[in-house]
Specification:
This protein is an alpha+beta fold. The protein folds into 2 domains: 79 residues, Glutaredoxin, CATH 3.40.30.10; 130 residues, Up-down Bundle (Glutathione S-transferase Yfyf (Class Pi), Chain A, domain 2). The protein is 52% helix and 6% strand. It has 9 helices and 4 strands, in the order E-H-E-H-E-E-H-H-H-H-H-H-H. It has a 4-stranded mixed β-sheet, sandwiched between helices. Helix 1 runs parallel beside helix 3. The protein is globular and about 45 Å long.
Length: 239
């Protein structure tokens, strides 16, 4: 099989990391295009209406043969169905997509803690507003979202091993990434509240221990969290 081509920014995890984790767990060959020599022009072509019939608005974008697929959840639907990372039944696939879209909602809110006014302005230009947004996010939004995900996990047949179905899905991998990102960005909050979500903590550990994921996390393919990505650690936002 010709390797998939993933187009995403080369120096951050961002939304592309949800796709990388699925590809790594599936064990399928892929090229992280923008991290290759002269890869950025190819990335920009994938979102250029003059170059593609179906250009995406923004990365991540996945090229699979003649298909060019944009939007994280959309890419994961494709990978999940093709590589055994989603339930076979339609109801299960739709449920996974719903959960993934809810994960996308909290990821967007996490981003907005450091850019509450505009992504066109530097964090330093909106610190006051960021502090207010982060305070509410830590006190109200993280517990609301993770409390919901914990209940979903416990309601799943098998008593909370997987988010959906009876085997690992891309949603479990995305939940791992969400927990990892929140731990990086808001370590004090997560350390204080995690006891309320034992299932999610166990799921995170389970995913991290899976052979393909464990190997990926130790490799140079895994970009470290940093203050250019979605999850950023600014200590002043947790005071």
């Amino acid at each position: 099989m010709k390797p998939y081509e993933l187009y995403y920014w080369p120096t951050i995890q961002g939304r592309g990391e949800f796709v990388r984790l699925a590809l790594e767990e599936a064990g399928v060959p892929y090229v992280d295009v923008a991290r290759q020599k002269k890869g950025m022009p190819a990335l920009m072509c994938s979102i250029d209406p003059s170059q593609e019939d179906h250009p995406s608005f923004a990365p991540p974008v996945l090229r699979a043969g003649e298909l060019l697929i944009g939007q994280t959840a959309n890419i994961l639907i494709f990978i999940g169905a093709r590589h055994g990372l989603a339930p076979r039944a339609e109801a299960g696939r739709l449920w996974c997509n719903e959960l993934q879209l809810t994960i996308a909602d909290i990821v967007n809110e996490a981003h907005d803690t450091h850019h509450p006014i505009s992504t066109n302005h530097y964090y330093e230009d909106q610190k006051k507003e960021a502090k207010a947004r982060a305070k509410d996010f830590c006190a109200e939004r993280i517990p609301k979202y993770l409390g919901y995900f914990e209940q979903v996990l416990q309601n799943n047949p098998g008593r909370g091993k997987y988010m959906a179905g009876s085997r690992i899905s891309y949603v479990d991998l995305s939940m791992f990434q969400l927990i990892s990102g929140l731990r990086y960005a808001f370590p004090k909050t997560m350390a204080k509240l995690e006891l309320e979500w034992p299932g999610l903590v166990a799921l995170h550990a389970m995913v991290a221990a899976r052979p393909n994921i464990a190997a990926y996390l130790k490799s140079n393919r895994r970009i470290a969290f940093n203050e250019d990505g979605i999850f950023r650690h600014y200590p002043e936002l947790e005071k």
